């Protein structure tokens, strides 16, 4: 089929023949403009928006074709036209691809195309959307396996390691010779001259920050983006819950009440008290900040996860353990204890295809579930 010049950007077709079969004339106009803006952004800015660096022509052409396929898959699934594809839609597409007879490298190309779409929504349209795929494909091709999740024993070890990681003995419990060695260690760890190490630095070394972060993530099945968005006003230590406002939740859909263990509540209480003494938190709502005074992102949280996992002697070489392994294990074991409805509420999972099967979940049942798992 020959396409008119108005239906192309640098030769890249905007509304394909296959897509036209789903669209009425008005929808075709809006979809063409939607695709035009996406293609122009990919060509001019897509690879690195901050440096105004676009993707290569061949990359844009291929990804535009794959994104078109993504749209048609969702239109067919929902039985209607929409431009508003969500991260749940993307996960549904990835699950569909998992059942298809194609190379994993091909599935990986489709996943990259979907990631580019959400990057455009985030960078060009100011949409608060980040996608961490439930199924991750890679290239070169390998046999598809879901991400590893933590066993109950892994979770217990991770909790214990989070309490032990980086700890130092009490200042007054060591000999002067031992104190000098510990001061050398703290100097290197805190990147501070040895002669400037004080009692406060010893207390800082035994911080509740990582402990509170890991324990909260294990109870609530926090996504990396939720670690980033976590604020102090989420924490209700009187009732041992997190109260996540709709506008701060990962998918901006509704307010969530998420149960945590009593032990985690006590750890968070200690961290909140400690946090008040840290100057970098003055005037900041963030529950946790990096040493560079930034909120944690998926990379910096992955670094924390790997540090604690190594302390716990978990196998990071032969197992595909990531921060998402925490979330997957929480969902798995809460579902085992209290069923899918409670797991859905605890993990803030609202996929249309799954929520139709869920029943009402109470915070009490969530509390029972998190207290019964490690």
What would your notes on this structure say?
- By secondary structure, this protein is mostly helical.
- It has 2 domains: 5-124, no CATH class; 152-167 and 206-372, Intergrase catalytic core (hpI Integrase, Chain A, Orthogonal Bundle).
- Helix content is 53%, strand content 4%.
- It has 16 helices and 5 strands.
- The strands form 2 sheets. The protein has a 3-stranded antiparallel beta sheet with strand order 3-4-5. A two-stranded antiparallel ribbon has the order 1-2.
- Strand 3 and strand 4 form a beta hairpin.
- Helix 2 (25-44) packs antiparallel against helix 3 (57-78).
- It is elongated, with a radius of gyration of 24 Å.
- The relative contact order is 0.09.
- Residues 141-146 and 352-361 have low confidence and may be disordered.
Could you state the order of secondary-structure elements as H and E?
EEHHHHHHHHHHEEEHHHHHH
Q: What global shape is seen? A: elongated
Largest sheet: spatial strand order: 3-4-5
CATH H-level superfamily title of the largest domain: Intergrase catalytic core
Q: In oligomeric terms, what are we looking at? A: single chain
- Report on the biggest sheet: 3 strands, antiparallel
The CATH architecture designation of the largest domain is Orthogonal Bundle
Low-pLDDT residue spans = 141-146, 352-361
State the domain count.
Answer: 2
Instruction: Please indicate the percent range of residues in DSSP E strands (runs of 2 or more).
Output: under 5%
Radius of gyration: 24 Å
Strand pairing plus helix content: what structural class?
mainly alpha
Mean pLDDT: 86
Discrete helix count: 16
CATH topology type of the largest domain: hpI Integrase, Chain A
Alpha-carbon distance between the termini?
Answer: 60 Å
Number of strands: 5
């Amino acid at each position: 089929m020959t396409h008119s010049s108005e239906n192309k950007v640098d030769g890249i077709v905007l509304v394909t023949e296959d897509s036209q079969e789903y669209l009425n004339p008005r929808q075709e106009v809006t979809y063409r403009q939607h695709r035009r803006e996406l293609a122009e952004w990919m060509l001019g800015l897509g690879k690195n928006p901050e440096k105004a660096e676009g993707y290569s022509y061949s990359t844009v052409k291929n990804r535009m074709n794959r994104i078109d396929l993504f749209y048609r898959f969702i239109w067919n699934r929902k039985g209607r036209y929409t431009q508003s594809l969500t991260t749940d839609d993307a996960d549904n597409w990835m699950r569909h691809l998992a059942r298809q007879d194609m190379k994993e490298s091909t599935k990986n190309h489709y996943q990259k195309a979907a990631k580019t779409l959400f990057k455009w929504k985030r960078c060009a349209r100011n949409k608060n959307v980040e996608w961490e795929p439930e199924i991750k494909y890679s290239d070169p091709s390998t046999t598809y396996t879901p991400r590893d999740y933590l066993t109950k024993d892994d979770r217990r070890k991770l909790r214990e390691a989070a309490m032990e990681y980086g700890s130092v003995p009490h200042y007054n419990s060591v000999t002067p010779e031992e104190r000098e060695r510990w001061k050398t260690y703290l100097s290197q760890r805190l990147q501070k001259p040895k002669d400037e190490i004080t009692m406060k630095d010893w207390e800082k070394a035994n911080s509740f920050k990582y402990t509170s972060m890991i324990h909260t993530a294990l109870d609530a099945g926090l996504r990396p983006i939720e670690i980033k968005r976590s604020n102090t006003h989420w924490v209700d230590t009187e009732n041992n819950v997190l109260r996540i406002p709709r506008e701060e939740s990962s998918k901006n859909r509704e307010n969530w009440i998420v149960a945590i263990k009593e032990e985690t509540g006590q750890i968070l209480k200690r961290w909140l008290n400690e946090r008040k003494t840290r100057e970098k938190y003055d005037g900041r709502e963030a529950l946790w900040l990096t040493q560079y005074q930034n909120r944690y992102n998926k990379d910096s949280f992955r670094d924390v996860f790997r540090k604690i996992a190594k302390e716990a002697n978990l196998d990071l070489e032969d197992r595909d353990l990531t921060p998402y392994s925490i979330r997957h294990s929480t969902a798995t074991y809460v579902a085992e204890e209290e069923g899918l409805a409670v797991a859905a509420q605890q993990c803030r999972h609202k996929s249309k295809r799954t929520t139709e099967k869920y029943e009402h979940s109470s915070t009490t049942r969530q509390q029972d579930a998190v207290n019964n798992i490690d």
